[in-house]
Task: structure prediction
Amino acid sequence: MDKKENLHAGHRKRKKEQFRQYGLDPFADHEALELLLYYAIPRADTNPAAHGLLRRFGSLSDVLKASVQELQEVPGVGENAALLVRLVSELSRRSQLECYKPGMAIRDSHEAGELFRRYFWNESREIVVELCLDGKCKLLALHRLAEGGTSGAALSARDAARRALNANAMFVYLAHNHPSGVAAPSQEDWAVTYAIQRSLSAVDIRLLDHIIVADNDYVSMAASDRNFHDEAYRKWGET
Result:
């Protein structure tokens, strides 16, 4: 081992010991990434790659949102390092959802919103999902209906009803995320919501709400429209 490798080894040992004693609190964002990359880049200096990731994506949160392909575009970040970063992000998201198990009661839009807020944590793609509940509002299943936003969801109205019916659902919460950070529903969101609502109603399943998640917060479309549950009233898509 040459002098440079000895220097890196000593630095890594000190950083690992610092983490062991104090956790990540004393670490700057680039130092936290540098530490993580040790386990995918065994010998090279990971400091330049850590700085490069933050320059490319702007924040630690956005680094964790990036795809494997995007991460590999940063100099010094190979496939193993990119996969490790994605794995950490996905494990963190999964751990936030551990408390939501089949049979758990989802009693209102607030509890549904909290579930969806965690589900969409650090998600950079726009995704549409449905949450299926039984007659006592207990969780049966969570289905991913579409990726790419509500523009593709109109074609999934029948699929949403079929999946809910197969799950023996009586109630459904619909949700999608706005990675842009603006949670306000668009006209297209309303049109798709009511298309799916009609499709579910045709098989005696009630759509309770459509939740839009953005920037770790959420908006209830049912709360935005007092006629949301009125079967005789539809704001969009009837003509």
Summary: The beta strands are 127-133, 139-147, 171-177, 206-214, 217-220. Residues 232-239 have pLDDT under 50 and may be disordered. The first strand starts at residue 127 and ends at 133. The chain is about 45% helix and 15% strand.
